From TrEMBL:
It catalyses: K(+)(in) = K(+)(out). It is a multi-pass membrane protein. Belongs to the inward rectifier-type potassium channel (TC 1.A.2.1) family. Keywords: Ion channel, Ion transport, Membrane, Phosphoprotein, Potassium, Potassium transport, Transmembrane, Transmembrane helix, Transport, Voltage-gated channel. GO terms for molecular function: ATP-activated inward rectifier potassium channel activity. Residues 37-175 form the Potassium channel inwardly rectifying transmembrane domain. The chain crosses the membrane at residues 71-94, 146-170. Residues 183-353 form the Inward rectifier potassium channel C-terminal domain. This is ATP-sensitive inward rectifier potassium channel 8. GO terms for biological process: nervous system development; potassium ion import across plasma membrane; regulation of monoatomic ion transmembrane transport. The lineage of its organism: Eukaryota, Metazoa, Chordata, Craniata, Vertebrata.
Amino acid sequence: MLARKSIIPEEYALPALASRAPRKPVFRDRVNKARFIAKNGACNLAHKNIREQGRFLQDVFTTLVDLKWRFTLVIFTMTFLCSWLLFAMAWWLVAFAHGDLDLARQSDVEQCVTKVKSFTSAFLFSIEVQVTIGFGNRMITEQCPIAITVLILQNIAGLIINAVMLGCIFMKTAQSHRRAETLIFSRQACIAVRNSRLCFMIRVGDLRKSMIINAAVRLQVVRKTTTPEGEVIPIHQIDIQSESAVASNSIFLLAPLIICHVIDKDSPLYDLSAMELQCSDLEIIVILEGVVETTGITTQARTSYVSEEIQWGHRFVPIVTEEEGVYSVDYSKFGNTVKVGTPGCSARELDEKPSILIQTMQKSELSHQNSLRKRNSMRRNNSIRKNNSMQRNNLSLAVPKVQFFTPEGGQNVAVT
């Protein structure tokens, strides 16, 4: 008997046919991972096992500015209290060394500081010297050169403490992220066709009338990648260009703008389709930088979009209208989107098969025309029903005929 491989050619065997059959991509469930940048712009990053803690003390001013307000106020209060107590001890020692605390000698010897008889009075004199209150009861005399030296040292120390603490509080109140609170981003991002190309779009806006000078927008894709050598990069940042970028990403942020990134062959989104995007673990970070017009301080606003926050086949609705010669912005529709016809394939497939885009646009146009016909027919039917109801109401409002009957059963008389 002949062998099976001599009867059935090998190229037509079941394993060979299965290997040549086109396979559908297998999509795995996306594993929920932590965001790198939160929606409010905060960095979701925890620093652990820092061995050289002394580096923070080398830049004390920045450390004080970065502290929370409750810690800053505690340090502010304790610094002044400690300085007052320290110099109060110095004034008490000066008075003790000179014999001013001896009640028997107070009438014979002129005191270094008048009216300093205890530590409490020395503490009050220390406060008066440092904050320059000067009530007039306690004052320094020329009897003790050491007292004059302590006075000079306390004045210098008080000026340094005031400068550092007031500068720290000023910097905390004028930090750049305070201005970023009025720079807003859309909650959702969109991917749709614009100018015959797939584009990734977000909307940014400024709630204040004072502008951001030299505003620039940067987009980055953050994902976990593995190099050909097997190195795992947990946070791989890839810069992507926006449509308005020529030499830089500068924008004129006068009204809310739609930042558009064209998904071309240089984009990390080039090979992603609608289904693959939902299963990917990428995160798109948006960074808006500029100079505050009123203060001249550089500010930065950040946000990010994960795959669940990217709407495929949607675009933003217009929110800027002209009313009585003034452009009006309706911020209630800032994040509203509308569904548009968009192919679900990747940008690579669109470049290889442009007919997909043409067919999608034709289907979208047909569906739009059908919806218009249905809408017009519904309006026509509603108008007909309204006219019929108005006619019935008019008939019901007409004056009815009234018949009178004679008691003898005579002829009926009708009166209109």
